[in-house]
Structures
1.
Amino acid sequence: MTQDASSSRRDLVRGLAVGGLAAGSLAGGGPAAAQPAPGASASPSLPLADPRERFPRPPFPAQSQPWPALQSRMTPVPDCGETSYRGSGRLAGRRALITGGDSGIGRAAAIAYAREGADIAINYLPAEQPDAEDVAKLIREAGRKAVLIPGDLRDEAFCARLVEQARDQLGGLDILVSNAAYQHAQHALADISTEQLDQTMKTNVYAMFWLAKAALPHLPPGSAIIVTSSVNADRPSEFILDYACTKAANEAFVRGLAKQVVKQGIRVNGVAPGPFWTPLQVGGGQTEQGLRQFGTTTPMGRPGQPAELASVYVELAAASSSYTTGQIYGQTGGVGWP
Ligand code: NAD
Ligand code: MG
C-alpha cells in the first residue's frame, strides 16, 4: 500500500470512528477473523474498496424456494456479516428482540448486535429453524446469550407471548427490531387474493402494532424501537402493491409513534432498504425476471448485502444516537432516499 493510500485509509477509519460507525461493520466477504472479547474495541482492518466491486452483481442464477425460503439454500448465500462484522462495545449490556432474525437483514442486525455486546432473542417461523440455529451459534460465539422463539406473528396472542418470553429470558428488553415481513409478487391487482392481502397486512403491519403494544410498558427510558420499512413505501413496484402499502404504513407508524413515546424516553426509527439479497426475494418476493436482474436499476448496479445494513441498525439502537427519533434511514444503493 502506498503512503497516500495508507494515510487516506487511516483518515477514513478515523472518520468512521468519530461518526460512531464501527469500521468492521462495513467489511464484506473477507476471511474469517477472530472476534474481540465482548465490549472490547477491535483494530480496524478494512481496505479501501470500490463499493460497486464488493459483493455479487446481477445477473443471478435462476432459483426459487417454497416460502419461507432458507438463506443457506440461496445462490449466492447472502452475506450477513458472519465473517466480517467487528464490534466495539456499542451495545454492551443491551437486550434486543429481533423478528425475522434468522435470515437476511434481521440476521445481519442480530450478528452485529451480539458483537456489539447485546444479548439477543430472535423470532422466526418454525420452518426456518436451521437458519435460526446458525444465528444462535454466531451470537454465542460472540459471548452473548441467544434466545430462539419460533412462532407466527400473525397471531396477536403469540406476539404478546413473544415479547414476554424474550423479556423473561433476557432479563429485560431495551431494543425491539420489528423486521419480519411477507412479500409475494403478482403481475396484476386481480391476482392478489384476499388471503394474500391478509397475510401481508398481518405480518407487516398488525404484528408491528402488536409487538410495540406488548413491549412498550416494559421498555425503560433510553430504549429503541426500529422498524424495517422499504423504498417501496414511497416508490412502489407495480408487482408488490399489497407489500408497498404495508411499508408506507410502517413509516407512518414510526413517525407518529416516535412523537408519542418520546415522552417515555423511547426512540422510534425506521430503515428503508432498496434491493437487498435475502430469502424474501427467492421465496416468491420477486418475479423470475426481477430476481435475475435484482439490483440492476440502482446506481450501484447491484443489490445490497445484509452486512451493508448492519451498522445502520447498530447506530439507531446505540445510546449515542440519543437525538435520533422519528427518522427513516434510506439505504438504496444510490437512489436518493427518503
Ligand atoms: P428475510 O426473508 O430474510 O426476512 C423476513 C423474515 O420474516 C423471515 O426470515 C421470517 O422469519 C419472517 N416472517 C415472515 N412471515 C412471518 C410470520 N408470519 N411470522 C413470523 N415471522 C415471519 O428477508 P429480508 O429481506 O431480510 O426482510 C427483512 C425486512 O427487510 C422486511 O421487513 C422486508 O420488508 C425489508 N426489506 C427487504 C428488502 C429486500 O430487498 N430484501 C427491501 C426493502 C425492505
Ligand atoms: Mg428467514
Note: Residues 1-43 have pLDDT under 50 and may be disordered.
2.
Amino acid sequence: MRDIAHFFADGSSSPATRFSDVFDPNSGAVQARVGLGTAADLDKAVALAQAAQPAWAATNPQRRARVMFKFKELIEKNMDSLAHLLSSEHGKVIADAKGDIQRGLEVIEFACGIPHVLKGEFTIGAGPGIDVYSMRQPLGIVAGITPFNFPAMIPMWMFGVAIAVGNAFILKPSERDPSVPVRLAELMKEAGLPDGILQVVQGDKVMVDAILDHEAISAVSFVGSSDIAHYVYQRGVAAGKRVQAMGGAKNHGIVMPDADLDQVVNDLAGAAFGSAGERCMALPVVVPVGNDTADRLRAKLIPAIEALRVGVSTDAEAHYGPVVTAAHKAKIESYIQMGVDEGAELVVDGRGFTLQGHEKGFFVGPTLFDQVKPSMQSYQEEIFGPVLQIVRAANFEEALALPSQHQYGNGVAIFTRNGHAAREFAARVNVGMVGINVPIPVPVAYHTFGGWKRSAFGDTNQHGMEGIKFFTKVKTVTQRWPDGGDNGDSAFVIPTMG
Ligand code: NAD
C-alpha cells in the first residue's frame, strides 16, 4: 500500500498513527493511504518555515518572480503526469484535470508580475516638505486548507500569491486526493524555491484545528463546504488571525424566453454535469422564465442528458467520470430520493448507474428534476453531484429573487439576447460572480474569485489584487527631511496638511 505523507522542508518524515484511505474512484478500490498529522507535525513545519521566511521576504521581488516563471515551465512539462495523478484520485476526466491545473497555473502567471504589483503608492509633497508612501509587506507564516474538488487549482490560487509576496506557506490539502499538492510542492522546490517556503501537512480536523490555533500562523485561507468554512472563520478570527473562508454553492442559470435554447442546453450540459457536478461553480439549478420556455427547454434537455457519456476518468470520450468516494455517491443518491419524497418530478434518474467492468466504481448517472420548488430542502442545500433541478419562474422578477434569496451566493448566470435584462440582472442579483451567457463565470486570475452570503466568510476574495491584499499588510510612511534651519514651534494640535 502506497503511503502519502507530509512534505517537510528538511525532507524528514513523521510516522503517522492515524490514516485515511485514498480511493481509485473508477474501481472503488483503496489505492493508497494518507497519514493524518498532529499538532506536533505542524509545529515542525512552522519551525522550518520560520527559519526560512525572513530571507525569502528579503529576496527582491524579481528573483521571487523567477521561481514562479520556472515553476510554470515545470508544470507545463509535467502536465500529463500531473493530470493523470489528479484524475486517479479525484475521478474527473483527464481533459478536465488539465483544466484544473491550468486555472491554477494562470494564478502563477499573475504572480510572475509581482514586482509590478508590489510597487506601492507614493505622494510627493503631501504637506510642506512631506512625502507619503506605502508598501505591502508579507504577513510571515500563512496557511491554506483546501477541498477535494480542485486539488491543483485551489492550492495554486493560494500559494501562488502568498509566496510571491514573501510569505512562507503551509498547505493542508484534502485527505481525499492529497498526492497532487505534494507534487506541486516538489516542483516548486525544483523551480528554486528555498526550503521551508512551501510545505504540505496532511490531515483532517485535528490538523485544521492545530493550524487555526497556532500562534505563529498569521492568516488562513480556506475553501470547502459552508459549515466548515464558517467554523474555520470563527475559530481563526477568535485566535487573532486574518481568515478568508470560501464555502459551498448552489448556482442558478436564469433562462429568459429570448435565449438561444440550443446554446443554453449545450452550456448547461457541461456546467451541470461536467466533473460530475463536483464544482463550486457548477450550475445545478436552471430557472426558465415562463412555462413555454420551461417546456421547450425541458424537451431539449432530456435527449442531451441521455446522450451524456459517463465513463472512467481516462476515457477520452467520457463527458464525466465517477464521484470522489462511495460516501459521496450515497449522499448524492439520498438527495435524489429526497427530491422525489418532496414531490419534485424526477425526469431522468441517475441512481443505480453501473459501468460494465467497473461495477464498484463511484458512478452516478445524470439526473434531471422538474417542478422543483424553493421550499424543498433538496433545492435549498448543495448536492454537489450530477443533478440538475428545473425551478420554473413566472417572470424576470421571480427568477431574479431565487438566487438572490438563496443561502448561497457564489455564482449565477443569465441566458438572454436582451442587453437591458442582462444589465439589470447583473446590477441587482445578490450573488458574487455573474455570467451573462457564460455558464461558469469563474473570473480570470488577475480578477478575483469569491461568492457572497454563505458562500464566503471574510471580506477578501481569492487571487488578483484581493489575494495580494489578503496575504500582505500595508505600511504607510510619512517622511520629512528637515534642512536643519528653522525648526518651528512644537505642534500640540493634530497635524494637518493645510
Ligand atoms: P470539506 O468542507 O469537506 O473539506 C474542506 C477542507 O476542510 C478539507 O481540507 C478537509 O480536510 C477539512 N475538513 C473537513 N471536515 C472538517 C472539520 N470537521 N473540521 C475542520 N476541517 C475539516 O469540503 P470538500 O468536500 O473537500 O469540498 C467540497 C466543498 O467545497 C463544496 O461545498 C464546494 O462547494 C466547496 N468549494 C467551494 C469553493 C469556493 O470557492 N467557494 C471552491 C471549491 C469547493
Note: The two ends are 73 Å apart (CA to CA).
